[in-house]
Design a protein that fits this description.
A 6-stranded mixed beta sheet has the order 3-2-1-4-5-6. It is globular. It is built from 6 helices and 6 strands. The protein is 44% helix and 20% strand.
């Protein structure tokens, strides 16, 4: 018999980071919370990264998620933007790993496909589908919040019994599975 688990979904960002929490009750899911963390008021990138780490730790301590699902960085043309986004994702991952919570990554295309059936769906289409899945009393101001819920739902939909997904249960597991992402290797 499956036990309930809480999934924290994160849509990393350097100006706005979305988060969403869902409760997996086996064959049913419930929305716990969704919102954004605004970072555009902070002056430097290191301050933003510190804030992301602290806020993700705060979410973990408040909601006690069993797993964290993150949207993987996408490949764009602006290398500086990609680097900053990757750092933001890495800091969010570090916060989860610091609390020994397994993390899972999903590409933006995979997230959209799992929610709408189309990998090239718009943010509006993802949000509309989530509104059918959950009763969202007040629509969030930013799509980053619904994108984060979509990541959590993607993780829920992708998990089938006996199937292994890309997951890290701690620093040693991450380093072991990603030698190319660790300096000096």
């Amino acid at each position: 018999m499956p036990t309930d688990r809480i999934i924290l979904g994160i849509d990393p960002g350097t100006n706005i980071m979305g988060f969403g929490l869902i409760l997996d009750k086996g064959k049913k899911i419930e929305l716990i919370a969704l919102d954004v963390i605004k970072l555009d008021h902070l002056d430097t990138h290191p301050l933003k990264l510190k804030h992301i780490f602290e806020k993700v730790l705060g979410l973990i301590d408040a909601y006690h998620p069993d797993e964290v699902a993150l949207e993987a960085p996408f490949f764009g043309k602006n290398v500086q933007s990609m680097l900053k986004l990757g750092r933001a994702q890495g800091v969010a991952m570090a916060a989860a790993l610091y609390r020994d919570i397994p993390i899972f990554e999903y590409s933006p295309r995979k997230v959209k496909q799992s929610i709408t059936g189309r990998g090239n769906a718009s943010k509006e289409q993802v949000s509309a589908m989530l509104n059918r899945l959950f009763v969202i009393a007040e629509q969030p101001k930013y799509f980053d919040a619904t994108d984060a819920v979509a990541v959590a739902c993607c993780h829920y939909f992708q998990r089938s019994p006996g199937e292994q997904k890309k997951s890290y249960s701690g620093w040693a597991a991450f380093v072991s599975n990603n030698p190319d992402k660790v300096a000096g290797k």
